[in-house]
Amino acid sequence: MDQAALEVVDLARQASDAYGRPDLSQRLAQVRARVTDPHVRVLVVGEFKQGKSSLVNALVNAPICPVDDDVATSLPTAVSYAEEPIAIAIHVPAAEDAPPTREPIDLEHLAEYVSEAGNPGNQRDLWAVEVGIPRQLLATGLVLVDTPGVGGLGSAHSATTIGALPTADAVMLVSDASQEYTEPELAFLDRARDLCPSIICVMTKTDLHLEWSRIIELNREHLTRRGIEAPILATSAALRSKAVASEDRALNLESGYPALIDHLRNHVVGHATDLSRRQAAHAVMSSVGQLRGRFAAEQRALRDPDASAELVRELEATKARTGELRSRMARWQQTLNDGAADLSSDADHDLRERIRRLTQLVDDAVADVDPAEVWEQLEQWLYRAVTDEIAAHYALVTARAADLAQEVAEHFADGAGEAVADVDVHAPLEQLRTLDRMEAVEQDQEGAGTKSMTALRGSYGGMMMFGMLGSVVGLGMINPISLGFGVLLGRKALADERERKLKQRRLEAKQACRTYLDEVRFVVGKDARDTLRHLQRQLRDRFTERADELQRSSSEALDAAQAALRGDERERTGRLADVEAELGRLDTLAQRAQALVARRTPVSTPGGPS
User: Which residue has the higher pLDDT, 509 or 424?
Assistant: First the structure.
């Protein structure tokens, strides 16, 4: 919790209440809630068996996440701060609108819930597991989320991970030092760059691979070519464990974890704190600006009554402009409605085009292979392609939505001299969680008897036909010629049957893929429409509240200026001193808010085991 930002927001709320502005106080209360929320979510992602769980365990010095050789985390596991160790399993809601149920579980039995061995196929029907432990690193609000790695970043499981990116403050890509980044890892980083504000690349198991420094340089080159700005930190969980056990400071530094912890504290938690301060400062300065307008207008009227007519005209014009912002026919309302409609149409077209392109790729891929022989590769390829396309779709929606919010805000900058900033735009990707896997296409196992019957059926007609022709020239029904043609036709019948079944398997594979893609389009399309409708309502409510605030501020400024002109000279002199004192207090509050923006989270120095 940022105490300095909290104090400034509370002072602004007190001023708003004192000056009779509950609308400003309510908005500041919302900002206060964000400031007091300490949670900073970091997603720990990576391919299967790259050391994600070991990394989380080493960071918190506790065996929280399972690290078996054959089984890894199969459900998101969020590790945060708690005074006493606690674990809670979050079950999938029984109904669409129902909240998820929370079940306290024994921390020692955590692997029975989050691993594939203990919870095969997610039989417990869980969404995630939350773990709380008393650790200094987590006390700052840091939440480490160990994500599923089974199947890798190119599998269906990665959709859930990508879905959480817009809600995360940072993503930590974990890859061991055995090889440079794979194409799925680089593709994931591309998506993470579009959906998450901060990326950290962590190279694990440096104690096992002597060429780890060369691998890091190769990975830096990959990131540079793709325009991805992210640090690459080398770590060894084994060295970290030995350092903690022996309290060896030098060995701990060699493990790389102090550098990683410092980065998390200073650049991730610190960045979130700086963002919270900027939001608090903007809200306070905005509120102070509206409170100050009333006293500034009154001050001008008291200081120069002769110029009061011009002042009143200016204030009346300002009141008229702010009044237009409240109209249902205001330009910002039209911009929002038109922009939301255009965005919805473009998003729907973009999704349809992506699904159409995937469908064509599937048809082309299946046309030249036997689906039964390559089904596993085909299935994983399609899951990877769908994940990539849906992530790209939501990256587009998120960017366009942010542009729309800024376009609407510009009307307020033109109409009231103040832009509306920090509009939250999130595009959740939880929809792929509900999709079933495709039904596998398998090759029929034909026995020798079945093949013999197929050959006999094909050869029978040929033998009879050529046997009858042979009887005309004095040969028997069964003769070498009829037998030869029977064998040929039997072999052709077998080949035709194999071709028929191959075509059938191709049709089944195409149908399975098309069914899956249709379900993706249905689920994602609905989620995208719901997201855009929520966004439109959010923007409408946010800007309507601001229009009401500006209208009230302009009205109070006009009333204050007119009231100042009604008193005699003695009353105006006394009131002027009071007004200037109020302005001084408001200016002091604004200066404290501006000081928040200038502050930065202090950088700590790497030390011993944390």
Answer: 509
Residue labelled with tokens 């579009």: 194
β-bridge partners, 176: 204
Tell me, what amino acid is at 20?
G
DSSP secondary structure letter of residue 115: B
Flag whether pLDDT at 482 surpasses 60: no
CB neighbours of residue 365 within 10 Å:
18
Q: Please, what's the largest Cα pairwise distance for the chain?
A: 143
Beta-bridge partner residues of 130: 78, 88
Two tokens, residue 606: 């790497």
pTM score: 0.69
Task: Evaluate whether 375 touches 509 at the Cβ level (below 8 Å).
Answer: yes
Q: Show Cβ contacts of residue 34 under 8 Å, excluding neighbours closer than 6 positions.
A: 276, 279
User: If 0-12 CB within 10 Å is exposed, 13-18 middle and 19+ buried, where does residue 385 land?
Assistant: middle
Q: Which of 52-61, 83-92, 115-124, 168-177 has the lowest mean pLDDT?
A: 115-124
Q: What is the 3-state secondary structure (H, E, C) of 342-402?
A: HHHHHHHHHHHHHHHHHHHHHHHHHHCCCHHHHHHHHHHHHHHHHHHHHHHHHHHHHHHHH
Instruction: Give CA–CA dist 592/487, Å, rounded.
Output: 97
> What span, in angstroms and rounded, lies between the C-alpha atoms of 483 and 462?
9
The residue-averaged pLDDT of 457-465 equals: 52
- Read off the tokens for 567: 């008193």
For the chain, domains (ranges, CATH) are 1-37+268-303+567-605 (no CATH), 38-255 (3.40.50.300)
- Rounded Cα distance, 71 and 66, in Å: 8
CA distance 76 to 144: 10
Q: Strand (E) positions, 407-477? A: none
Q: Hunting for tokens 């704190």 — which residue is that?
A: 273
Residue 10: pLDDT band (50, 70, 90) is: very high
Tell me the per-residue pLDDT of 562-591, one tens digit each, with 9 for 90 and over. Answer: 887 776 677 777 888 888 898 999 999 999
**What Å distances lie between residue 297 and 216, 532, 555, 562, CA to CA?**
62, 41, 11, 9
For Cα atoms 269, 270, 271, give the angle at the middle one, nearest 5 degrees: 90
Helix, strand, or coil here: 434?
helix
- Three-state secondary structure call for residue 24: helix
